[in-house]
């Protein structure tokens, strides 16, 4: 079902679990590939108090891929 590695799926799931932005230092070797695939993007974090900080966010394509692979939670 997925052409992604287990590490890439874990990174997408982590982004999905942090809708306010996953810390930019997370998955340093994995995120560039996910950016190239159009699944994640770096942008300022959502909370006003953290606006100056960057975070990883799912793109619409990343959200769709997360829907397909599931969150990894029981019942998903």
Report on this model:
This protein is of the alpha+beta class and 76 residues long. The chain has helices at residues 6-17, 31-36, 60-69, and strands spanning 22-23, 40-44, 54-58. Helix 1 (6-17) packs across helix 3. The chain starts with 5 loop residues before the first helix and ends in a 7-residue tail after the last helix. The relative contact order is 0.24.
Over all CA atoms, what is the radius of gyration? Answer: 12 Å
**Which secondary-structure class do the elements indicate?**
alpha+beta
Poorly predicted segments: none
Order of helices and strands: HEHEEH
Helix amount, in percent?
Answer: 25-40%
What is the 3D form? globular
Please tally the helical runs, counting DSSP H or I stretches of 4 or more residues.
Answer: 3
Q: What is the quaternary state of this protein?
A: single chain
Q: How many DSSP-defined strands?
A: 3
Q: Between the first and last Cα atoms, what is the distance in angstroms?
A: 15 Å
Strand content: 15-25%
Mean pLDDT: 91
Strand order of the largest sheet: 1-3-2
Mind summarizing the main beta sheet?
Answer: 3 strands, antiparallel
In short:
The protein has 76 residues and is of the alpha+beta class.
Note the main attributes of this structure.
single chain; 76 residues; alpha+beta; 3-stranded antiparallel sheet; 3 strands
List the helices and strands and how they pair.
Layout: H1 6-17, E1 22-23, H2 31-36, E2 40-44, E3 54-58, H3 60-69
Antiparallel strand pairs: 1-3, 2-3
């Amino acid at each position: 079902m997925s052409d992604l590695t287990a590490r890439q799926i874990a990174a997408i799931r982590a982004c999905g679990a942090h809708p306010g932005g996953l810390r930019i230092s997370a998955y340093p070797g994995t995120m560039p590939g996910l950016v190239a695939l159009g699944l994640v993007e770096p942008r300022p974090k959502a909370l006003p108090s953290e606006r100056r900080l960057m975070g990883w966010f799912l793109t619409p394509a990343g959200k769709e891929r997360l829907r397909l692979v599931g969150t990894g939670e029981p019942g998903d």
